[in-house]
Design goal:
Mean pLDDT: 83
Largest sheet: none
Number of helices: 13
Strand content: under 5%
Distance between the termini: 46 Å
Shape: flat
Order of helices and strands: HHHHHHHHHHHHH
Structural class: mainly alpha
Length: 344
């Protein structure tokens, strides 16, 4: 009896200690989160101070407010998001999670500015400083906009053609053994070969360079989407088909109602991989033959040793492809929203 009483007293003491620790832990976590949220603003101000007040390696170096303005825009956007997050818990959690990464980006920008403009450890013309790149983008904005439009036009034409053919081929190969018998051997032969390997042959055989580039982009997308779709449909549980057949479903309904919806996660994986392949093929095609687009612009500026323009175009490419992938990810999340219900 005494032992049981002692155990109960010890348990109560343990709960009292936990009750004292939990508020303290929550308070510490809250303080850490506040520090995390404020750090990007502090890092942004340090980056502005470094750019404006740290002396340049060459006092005569041309320095404008484009880069400085860019930093203030980043600080302003983050500050506005932080104010909105006061009443938006989801946004606040997102900012807490992303704050260390935002600090890293600002630290990289500051480091590059110190290595180029402030110390010239990375020398011109091969490593222009950030403000120089921003000036090059603004000065050559007309050319860059035209090149971006040409690249997007070529990218989406090739991507949509390859995606549609890949979906069709993948559905037929995944569902029908007869179709798979004829198509799959060619996929095994063409699959390991990078699509850009065919570029010299296609550029000779195609009636125009644009059509040749479209074919190269579509070929890479076709393979990725076909393989992913075929794999997704083959992994569908056969009991679903059997249950649907007992309810009187036709072959067309089996494909539309069971095969395709069940394979959607794999299909979107293929579409994402296809976009990556399309972007690579696009730049190589533009650099080797197509006389327009961002890849062509980069090659042109590199040949004239205008590296600030070249880096500016690379930044535009990165932003463009990030936006395209973001749109594709949003479409995937929208189409697969039913998976969240299954997980919950």
């Amino acid at each position: 009896m005494k032992e049981n009483q002692n155990m109960k007293e010890n348990a109560h003491q343990g709960y009292d200690k936990l009750d004292g620790q939990i508020p303290s832990t929550k308070k510490n976590r809250r303080i850490i989160n506040i520090i995390k949220l404020i750090l990007p603003i502090i890092m942004g101000l340090i980056a502005v101070f470094e750019y404006v007040y740290l002396p340049n390696h060459r006092p005569t170096a041309k320095q404008t407010n484009f880069y400085n303005g860019f930093l203030w825009i980043l600080i302003g956007i983050y500050t506005l998001s932080l104010l909105i997050s006061i009443k938006n818990k989801k946004l606040r959690e997102h900012l807490i999670y992303k704050a260390p990464f935002y600090c890293l980006i600002l630290l990289i920008l500051m480091g590059l500015d110190i290595l180029t403009l402030k110390t010239e450890k990375l020398r011109l013309p091969y490593f222009p400083y950030a403000d120089m790149i921003f000036n090059a983008i603004v000065k050559d904005s007309d050319y860059i906009l035209q090149s971006t439009f040409s690249s997007l036009k070529l990218l989406f034409i090739g991507y949509f053609i390859g995606s549609l053919l890949g979906l069709l081929t993948g559905i037929l190969c995944g569902y029908s053994k007869k179709v798979s018998y004829w198509v799959e051997p060619f996929m095994k032969i063409l699959g390991p070969i990078p699509t850009t390997t065919w570029l010299p042959v296609v550029m000779v055989l195609a009636t125009t360079l644009f059509k040749g580039a479209v074919f190269i982009i579509a070929l890479g997308v076709w393979f990725s989407v076909t393989l992913a779709t075929m794999t997704g449909i083959r992994n569908v549980d056969r009991s679903y088909y059997e249950a649907a057949k007992t309810l009187g479903a036709s072959e067309n309904q089996l494909i539309r109602k069971i095969a395709i919806p069940s394979a959607l996660p794999n299909i979107f994986q293929g579409l994402t991989a296809g976009m990556s392949s399309a972007c690579t093929s696009l730049l190589i095609a533009e650099m080797m033959g197509v006389e327009s687009g961002l890849g062509w612009y980069i090659n042109w500026k590199k040949s004239w040793a205008e590296y600030s323009n070249m880096y500016g175009a690379i930044i535009i490419i990165c932003l463009t492809f990030l936006f395209v992938n973001w749109v594709l990810r949003k479409l995937r999340d929208r189409a697969l929203i039913w998976q969240e219900g299954m997980v919950n």
